[in-house]
């Protein structure tokens, strides 16, 4: 697990439009909220993405960009975004590059079988690329507002 004060692991992954996203491209211009979610189109993940999208303007006023990451592919992200009006940038991590770097993978029993799953987690990264907050196992409902409050303190 990552801890506040550590350098945020950089990554290079495609978004819903198949454009490459590098975390380092946002530094030093913006703070970044990087949230990991389980899967597109699930109730909790949809609610979380909509909440972050609804507050995207508030994050922008604070000089902060919001990025959502899951193991879904670019096409799934595009369909999810368009279906629900998601405005935050969604990043595809099919090979779990960022998921492993941020320590968000956990073993979870599904139908009697242990499977690797993403633990809903959020990281607040400052303009220098340093983790200011590392939150693992968060609850989707109301989470975006919590994170906005943390960003206001930067």
Largest sheet: 5 strands, mixed
Residue share in β-strands: 25-35%
Shape summary = globular
CATH class: Alpha Beta
Q: How many helices?
A: 5
Radius of gyration: 14 Å
Distance from N terminus to C terminus (CA atoms, Å) equals: 22 Å
Structural class: alpha/beta
How many domain modules? 1
| Order of SSEs | EEEHHEHEHEEEEH
Number of DSSP-assigned strands: 9
Q: What is the spatial order of strands in the main beta sheet?
A: 5-4-3-8-9
CATH superfamily label: Glutaredoxin
Mean pLDDT: 95
Helix content: 25-40%
CATH topology: Glutaredoxin
In the CATH classification, which architecture applies? 3-Layer(aba) Sandwich
Low-confidence parts, pLDDT < 50 over ≥5 residues? Answer: none
Multimeric state:
single chain
Structural features, described:
With 154 residues, the chain is an alpha/beta fold. It has one domain: Glutaredoxin (3-Layer(aba) Sandwich). The protein is built from 5 helices and 9 strands, in the order E-E-E-H-H-E-H-E-H-E-E-E-E-H. A 5-stranded mixed sheet has the order 5-4-3-8-9. The mean pLDDT is 95.
Question: Any chance you could write out the topology, listing elements then pairs?
Answer:
Blueprint lengths: L11 E3 L5 E3 L8 E6 L6 H12 L1 H6 L2 E7 L3 H11 L4 E4 L4 H5 L3 E6 L2 E6 L2 E5 L5 E6 L6 H10 L2
Parallel strand pairs: 3-4, 4-5
Antiparallel strand pairs: 1-2, 3-8, 6-7, 8-9
């Amino acid at each position: 697990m990552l801890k506040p004060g550590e350098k945020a692991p950089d990554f290079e992954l495609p978004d819903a439009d198949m454009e490459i996203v590098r975390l380092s491209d946002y530094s030093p211009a913006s703070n970044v909220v990087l949230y990991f979610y389980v899967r597109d189109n699930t109730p909790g993940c949809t609610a979380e993405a909509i909440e972050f999208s609804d507050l995207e303007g508030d994050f922008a006023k604070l000089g902060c960009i919001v990025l959502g990451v899951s193991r879904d592919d670019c096409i799934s992200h595009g369909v999810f975004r368009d279906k629900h009006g998601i405005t935050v940038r969604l990043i595809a991590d099919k090979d779990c590059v960022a998921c492993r770097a941020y320590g968000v993978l956990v073993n979870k029993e599904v139908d009697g079988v242990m499977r690797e799953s993403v633990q809903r987690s959020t990281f607040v990264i400052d303009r220098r690329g340093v983790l200011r907050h590392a939150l693992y196992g968060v609850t989707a409902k109301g989470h975006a507002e919590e994170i906005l409050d943390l960003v206001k303190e930067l």
